[in-house]
Amino acid sequence: MAPKLRILHIGDNIKYNHDVYARFSSEFEIIQPSAEERQREEFMRALKERRWGDFHAIFRPFWNTGGEMGRWDAELIPLLPKTVKIMASAGAGYDWADVDVFAQHGIIYCNGAAASSESVADMTIFLILSVFRHLAWSHQAAHSTNPQAFADAHKNSPLTARNPRNHVLGIIGLGQIGYTIAQKAHAAFGMRIAYHDLIRKSSDQEARIGGATYHDSLESLLANADCVVVATPFAGKTLLTLERFRQFKKGARFINIARGSLVDEDALLQVLDEGHIVAAGLDVHANEPYVHPRLARHPRVMAMSHNAGGTVDTHIGFERLAMENIEGFFLNGKALTPVNAHLLKSRSSL
Question: 220 and 282, same structural domain?
């Protein structure tokens, strides 16, 4: 019998999918570094020493643990054994993992966005309602226990509040999460969907979200959307600058459920104060865990603590999907949610 492939399990023990883990651990040999070994310097030392020998995959089933070594970058990734072919991790974003460097070393990186799409989309629906109905203004006034603030919100917030129905929801990035947002917004609110992405969806996919309108340029989307949702990964630079915010339709709403680093927060404050953008919903922030103090106090900003994907259902899905990605790759020849497969293909064609 051939020896089992070896999996480096970083982070806590399995909590939810015990049946899947029983199968997974019967298929592969699992190696689990200690908490001390996961600290960056010790982790890198262990890789240099080949403390765990050759292994074939890296498995991170939880977002809250397993990231103690910090960013997976050009300093860390080259230390991995040449046998490593896949890393499967919890989490939807991957700004902590340099997927280009993974691809340079022939390693597929898989994230957990598919497991969090339902939870993130639900939070986005809440934020859509918040920005159209000025719920932050009403919420802050009620919690102030100040009768003048209450009376002001009661009287004046409805003067610019709108129902979302028939408004254009512009989504930047129509991946798994963006598409689920579109489905819910169209079904629940009767919103018209527009989107910008590098790859256009099929006509059937567009039809399933009310005949969505594709914009091949970001400028075109911003100029035509009544509410813009950012649902695209961070690609190393700020996407929403003051120049970009100026391209929004006057009176539009703005929501960010992707990454805070995509947004110039001072520019957002400027266009909010000018009234060019009338309300914002922010689940993510540029300097987490610190929130921009003026955004936190702004009566037309609904701010959350990066909890859009934060449900038990998401954590169950993250854990399961990480295992199934590795199983799919080694046992069926195809990972389920690869992020950088196109980069590996482009390198192999050189």
Answer: yes
* 21 occurs within a structural domain: yes
**Integer angstrom CA distances of residue 141 from 144, 150, 156, 189, 292:** 5, 5, 12, 26, 20
Q: Coil, helix or strand for 71?
A: coil
Write down the pTM of the prediction.
Answer: 0.89
Radius of gyration for the alpha carbons in the chain, expressed in angstroms and rounded: 22
- Domain that residue 272 falls in: 116-303
pLDDT tens-place string over residues 261-298: 999 999 999 999 999 999 999 999 999 999 999 999 99
Return the active site residues.
Answer: 259, 288, 306
Which pLDDT value is given to residue 1?
67
Please tell me the total count of domains within the chain. Answer: 2
Pair 44, 69: CB distance under 8 Å: yes
Nearest one of 59, 52, 20 to 335, comparing CA atoms: 59
DSSP letter (8 states) at residue 79: G
Alpha helix (H) residue ranges in 164-264 = 176-189, 203-207, 218-224, 242-246
pLDDT tens figures, 291-337: 999 999 999 999 999 999 999 999 999 999 999 999 999 999 999 99
Q: Residue 184's domain is classified under what CATH number?
A: 3.40.50.720
The string of DSSP codes covering 256-279 is: E-S-GGGB-HHHHHHHHHHTSEEE
The pLDDT of residue 123 is 98
SS3 240: strand
Q: Residue 349: is its pLDDT beyond 60?
A: no
Co-location of 158 and 230 in the same domain: yes
How does DSSP assign 130-171, residue by residue? HHHHTHHHHHHHHHHT-HHHHHHHHHHGGGS----TT-EEEE
Alpha-carbon gap, residue 196 to 238, rounded angstroms: 17
pLDDT in tens, 216-250: 999 999 999 999 999 998 877 899 999 999 999 99
The answer to the question of residue 73 being in a domain is: yes
